Amino acid sequence: MKKILTFLLLLTAMTSPRLALAQRAIPDDNLALPVLINLTDCGSSITAVKGTGFFVDADSGFYLVTARHVLFNESQPVQPPSPRALLCKKAELLSYSKAPKDRQRNRLMVDLQALNEAGRIKGHASHDVAVVQIGLRSSPSPAGSPNQAASGTIDTLRGVQTVQVAPSGLLSTSITDLKKFDEVLAVNDVYVLGYPSSIGIQQTPQIDYDAPLLRKGIVAGVNSANKTVVLDCLTFQGNSGGPVVEVTHEGLVSRFWIIGLVSQYVPVTETWVNTTLSYFNMQIHNSGYSVAEPMDPVIELIGK
Questions:
Q1: What is the CA radius of gyration of the chain?
Q2: The domain that contains 259 carries what CATH number?
């Protein structure tokens, strides 16, 4: 009788929404993966610049990973051995606690110019990827499964000031949790995490611009020639550099891997020509597809 009663209780817990524990579609701590990058001390011709990134820890140090165009002035040619020209000299980095209900944030102030001159910022030659070393790991990350982000303690480099730290510390992902281009699976679900600063009306905001937004899509395909990943996902200005998380399933177990970072959206153009008035008009729209840079160049830069 006890066995039957136990079975009935378990069955009830599995079917009753009141007794069953609701689970998020992605691990709770993954919500804290995106880092808001507020660039400051920019040139007079540059307006406020915002982007997204994420932290990666490796044996060689603790890094901020983002899109190259978020940090560097892409219009200026690279002249080795001089470092690339930065868009702005400083940045504020904001990220949230691992616990979703804990609204305390991590806040770092970064002297980008000092780090760039010290060779701590690297931009990839052919991919829209950049890494910024902000610290050295002083204690090992706790061991975990390959798809779990980890957090530990870091010794920040000169030029990096820790203003505020959430109780859970900085959330990062191990370099071993980054999935390479050849391992990305088309049609799998993906989540894009970031800070799309260009949407909405800032004077009457419908969203919290200091809180990350997520968007769900799929891996629409890959561009083998460019070594990039195509996503069926709308992205906007501010999403650049944000992590793309792919979901894989192994039996009943779901795994979550960072497979890329947002680089750009794929435009669609509409043209209209009035031959009588010799009038030409072209409009560019967001097609709903986005391009993500793979993790291979990230691993390459961190390994240098």
A1: 22
A2: 2.40.10.120
